[in-house]
Amino acid sequence: MQAPFTFLLLPSLWASRNRARRRERGDLLRAGLFGAVGVGVCAALFSGAYWLTTQLTAYAEFGDYLLRLGLSWLFLTFLAFLAFSGVVTALSTFFLSEDLRLLLAAPIPAGRLFLARFTRTVGQASWMVVMFVTPVLVGIGAARCAPPGFYVAAVLTVLPFAMIPVAVGTAATLLLVNVLPARRARDILMLVSLAFAATLVLMLRFMQPERLLRVESLPDVAGFFATLQSPVTPLLPSFWAGEALFAVLQGGQDLLHGAALWTTALACTVLLGAADRRWHFAGYSRAQEAPKARVNQLRVIDGLARVLPLSAVRRQLLIKDVKVFLRDVSQWLQLLPLLALVLLYLYNFRALDLDRVPYMSGFIKNVYALVNLAMAGFVLATVAVRFVFPAVSAEGDAFWVIRASPISLRDFLWSKFWTGLVPLLLFAEGLTIAANELMGVDPFLKVVAAVAVAFMTFALVGLAVGLGARYPRFGADPTQAAASYGGVAFMILAVLYIVVTIVLIGWPSSMWLFSRFRGVRLSTVRELLMAGSFAAAIALSLATWVYAMRSGVRALERLNK
Amino acid sequence: MIAIENLVKQYGAFTAVDGISLEVRPGEIHGFLGPNGAGKTTTLRMIAGLLQPTAGRVIVNGHDLAVEPEAAKGSLGFVPDRPFIYEKLTAGEFLRFHGGLFGLDGNGITARVHEMLDLFELRRWEDELVESFSHGMKQRLVMSAAFLHRPRAMVVDEPMVGLDPRGARLVKDVFRRMSERGVSILMSTHTLEVAEEMSHRISIIHKGRIIAQGTVDEVRRLAGGGDDHFTAVFLKLTGGGGLQEIDEIV
User: Fold this and answer.
1) Residues A149, A154, A159, A163: is their CA dihedral positive or negative?
2) Which of A292, A315, A348 is the last residue of a domain?
3) How confident is the model at residue B244 (pLDDT cuts 50, 70, 90)?
4) What is the ipTM of this complex?
5) What is the Cα–Cα distance from B213 to A479, expressed in whole angstroms?
6) Which of A275, A292, A309 is the last residue of a domain?
7) Are A510 and A367 in contact (CB under 8 A)?
């Protein structure tokens, strides 16, 4: 007798159970940290949704209209996200996953394998949306004192709503993989999805919701709502989901839209299953052809490295690191969303007319330069944990090449440091200088921020490389390495370092600004204390940088790999 | 019984397997030899149902793989060159899952899992995570899985890699016993001594084509090798001599 398709999901469940039973070092710390962040985010989403819904209740019918529109927009945003997430996830679950080599050699009926893979795809592609939408819907329900039926309806709505776009995304993947080799398809899909995510963020931003804050732009409000209303079409599942939930929230029922969701979800599954039976094996087989794909030689990297005043060993290490990074499109494409956020961040400074808001002018505006510095620090830490911390782990099974070569591990690790430092320093300086320029902060603070961010980059890159060498995960991919014990430890230390540095720089800077705005002359003792505070910030950065690197070199020398 | 007829696999313009045919009869151990990149693994992956042939047929125990894939795979055991094992499962869990894939039900599976773990000397590690296993232990676990459902045909890609002498001896003994019971075994290997010692017949594949087929003695005669060491015969057939050039380079 053949087991049901859910049998094929057992290894994931058993593996999770085994991981929970046999905890590794740092698992509890990681779970605690991520759990706390998760609970914090959920609480914030719940509070936000609750507060907003309560505010809307005060506007009677107009509030209801906005809530209804808001629900449709919420689902519309997720609809697009789920479709693209489905495309990328399906590529992995249906075509690139390692366990397919085991499962396809077994006598499993194609339909059963499809159902198991599709279930996994829906789960993997939509868990983030579910995590986000749950506190929001619970917040809305609580604010409107919704009956228990609302929560049941929410579950019955979100499930088919997630299935439809993921099925469409999976179908797109099935089509693409049959046209392109899967690994090339993955690169293209990653690019398309990340470009989409970046466009979505920028699009939302360029709608300029800050117009609502300006009294003189009130006649535009009607136009603004017309813009909001335009993408909400009755033909999309997001509209059906919004309508179905809004009806239950009002104490009624909308069986038509609920039925539309379920029938479409089931029809999509059946049609996708038929297409999968017809084209999956051909696509999977094509996926094996990727190693034959043409390789970009990237000779320009060799040329650039030859110009740099480097020893032969460091030059070859640099060439290898840069080529490996650039050839793995899935790695560097992850920078795109970050780039989009940075652009958004800078655009905010240009778009917001801060001088109209009394509290944001003058003194506070200059203090904001320090907030900007802290933001740059956090962005640096995020990029460093993802791209610099895994630098040693990325050597993987090839680390023996380094160990067996006549080069010192010190040279090896410092090469990793400089390779990470240069792009991050350019990025951090660019971000800080541009933001301060757009804000129009005091020239003194511009210089302080530019110098401070340089020291922060040295410290954070040194910390990332050093801890990456102390806690390497040779078998893991860069994302897993970044989320490992060492990665979490890096983030905690990096945040502590940033906070202390900002305090050490912020206190003397604000004293100086205060004295300047008030026209008060500072005492010599205070000036000395301020200089000492700046010096302490510099010393902290240098100590973090040098100690982390030395500790990393020692750890590598002890490593019995 | 395993039979392949005019099997072809093309990657774009490159032909990895170029119209090969062979038959492994019940009870036969068939050595599948060839230099690196000759097309051995591609052929075996097509027989296991992991790669779609560009042309040709694969018949496993009377079932056409393209027409009855489940029946064909259900009677076949496959040991790949780079096996996938769920690292976070224990050996016992992995075998029970593997048995489930081949339709072994809950009542008999535990006894069968224990039999295989005993046979491949892994019983002590039944409840240990696979990630803690050495390469040789993983190889023996994959063998246990492949034999779990009592297949009537086996496809084995480089079975001796990573095994210690005791493990290698064990695997050879298991293959011989299986063959005596009528199981057809198609075995790819680079260890020519193993092929010579165990195979009833061998096929040598080179650049995607079978260039020699028969018993060891027949292949030896075909190469005009007389009493040559089998390595010399293999090198003659595949054109891999080159000792003169090595001397010049070294």
Assistant:
1) positive
2) A292
3) low
4) 0.79
5) 49
6) A292
7) yes
